[in-house]
């Protein structure tokens, strides 16, 4: 199975409000011009997991059809993915902090023969981070690899200073969240906005996407 890059955030919802979340995902993808009929149909009909298995207290939802995106002359496909964990203080229920991700195969996003993300991939990631943080502003959005995604999400849920929170390649972080995890590592480049700050591990990107106009 190919290595995946995750563009991920947390959304606060339950079985009653989950449809509102999936509807907002559809609206965001539509605003970006990348929502096709199959993905829209799935998003508008997706349901909160109906049963809880104590022997495997996790659930995952994603459509069969990918989202097709484009940046420059490159086309990238991603899967919309929802991940549900067990509620820490409510046995037999799923946590109301749900992980929402766009999962991209990593190799097409990187320069050939290198681990550095290409200029086009950086532009796309930055666009997705901005669009989804507008829609879901509470937690920000993070670009992670498979070794980082779980620990980054867990650190974000627990809040408070943690080196694991900084396990990402790029992020757009609301300032109220950022204050809980300062100081930031000195190996990260920072872009300061009005409501959010962007961070990136410079060695992972051909060009920092906020450093150019496009």
Summarize the structure in words.
With 214 residues, the protein is an alpha+beta fold. The chain contains five helices and nine strands; from the N terminus they run E-H-H-E-E-E-E-H-E-H-E-H-E-E. It has helices spanning 18-32, 37-45, 119-135, 149-158, 175-178; strands spanning 4-12, 58-61, 67-71, 74-85, 97-105, 141-145, 170-174, 188-192, 196-201. Helix 1 (18-32) runs antiparallel to helix 2 (37-45) and helix 1 (18-32) crosses helix 3.
Describe the sheet with the most strands. Answer: 9 strands, antiparallel
Helical stretch tally: 5
Classify the helix fraction into a percent range: 25-40%
What structural class should be given to the helix and strand makeup?
alpha+beta
- The H/E string reads EHHEEEEHEHEHEE
User: How would you state the average pLDDT, rounded?
Assistant: 92
Radius of gyration: 17 Å
**Overall spatial form:** globular
Total E-strand runs: 9
| Assembly form of the protein | single chain
Low-confidence stretches: none
Distance separating the two termini: 33 Å
Strand content: 25-35%
């Amino acid at each position: 199975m190919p290595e995946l890059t995750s563009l991920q955030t947390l959304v606060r919802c339950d079985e009653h409000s989950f449809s509102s979340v999936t509807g907002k995902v559809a609206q965001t993808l539509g605003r970006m011009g990348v929502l096709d009929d199959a993905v829209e149909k799935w998003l508008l009909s997706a349901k909160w997991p109906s049963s809880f298995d104590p022997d495997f207290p996790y659930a995952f939802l994603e459509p069969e059809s990918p989202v097709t995106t484009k940046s420059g002359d490159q086309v990238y496909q991603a899967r919309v993915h929802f991940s549900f964990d067990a509620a820490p203080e409510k046995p037999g229920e799923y946590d109301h902090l749900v992980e929402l991700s766009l999962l991209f195969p990593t190799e097409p996003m990187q320069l050939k023969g290198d681990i550095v993300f290409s200029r086009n991939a950086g532009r796309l990631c930055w666009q997705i981070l901005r669009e989804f943080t507008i829609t879901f502003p509470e937690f920000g959005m993070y670009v992670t690899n498979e070794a980082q995604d779980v620990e980054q999400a867990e650190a974000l849920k627990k809040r408070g200073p943690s080196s694991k929170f900084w396990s990402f390649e790029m992020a757009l972080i609301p300032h109220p969240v950022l204050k809980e995890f300062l100081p930031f590592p000195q190996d990260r480049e920072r872009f300061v906005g009005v409501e959010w700050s962007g961070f990136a591990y410079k060695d992972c990107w051909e060009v920092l996407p906020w450093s150019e106009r496009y």
